[in-house]
Description:
By secondary structure, this protein is mainly beta. The protein has helices spanning 2-10, 130-137, 143-150, 265-268; strands at 34-35, 38-39, 64-74, 79-89, 93-100, 103-110, 114-119, 124-129, 162-167, 170-177, 180-186, 192-199, 205-216, 219-232, 238-253. The model is unreliable at 1-55 (pLDDT under 50).
Amino acid sequence: MRIVFSxxxxxxxxxxxxxxxxxxxxxxxxxxxxxxxxxxxxxxxxPIEAVDQQTASDDLNFTYLKAKSKVVWKTKNNSDxxxxxIRMKKDSIIWANISVxxxxxxAVLFTKDRVQFYHKINNEYxxxxxDSLSTSLGFKVSYDLIQNxxxxxxxxxxxxxxxxxxxxxxxxxxxxxGHVEVNNWVGPNRKLKKLSVSDVPSSNKLTLDxxxxxxxxxxxxxxxxxxxxxxxxxxxxxxxxxITIKYSKVELLDTxxxxxxxxxxxxxxx
Length: 270
């Protein structure tokens, strides 16, 4: 289950463009945020209620994504490193293969309503609803949330109640999604730079920082990210998990990808 947990948040981040390409590093030149082509100049910590709901950050469309990443997972007592291959079809499916020491150890398949996990080494298969997964993680998880985090978009819908605050060169977009408080920091390149998600009743919190933005065709992709998870255990004490992700290759495709996920028939029996 620990690898399932990492997979939910491991694959994060990016941005997408319509044609296949491999990233080359380029420093963004933008130094101000534009709203409707007009610079917004506001004193620090002053609400900007009139900012258009769709222009705080750039959401980039994609059809298929293929990537390879190195994921380091650290807790108080353990540290593990995985190589993770990721494939995506927008609004449909997310597939990941997890390898340890060049050995394929597990595969995960996210669809709109379920999460399937096959631990090849231990020959174990898990089929979960997102409600079950959310209970295990201590956070409300959905397919759309995972997809938006992978492609670097604001994870929650922009048409809910929010306010926008100018903090130095960034915009802080504050949202409320049920009992979850969400803060989105949008950088001068109009991409999501930092995210915090806090579950108010439990005080569980996820913080995500996007880094190393590089150009993929006309899009920006964060080739590094770090995630901090602070989740209470059964003793009501916080356990902290640190996850770092570095992409070595990302391709953005129009041509269909395959999503191989085979589970032995004996494990599928009720």
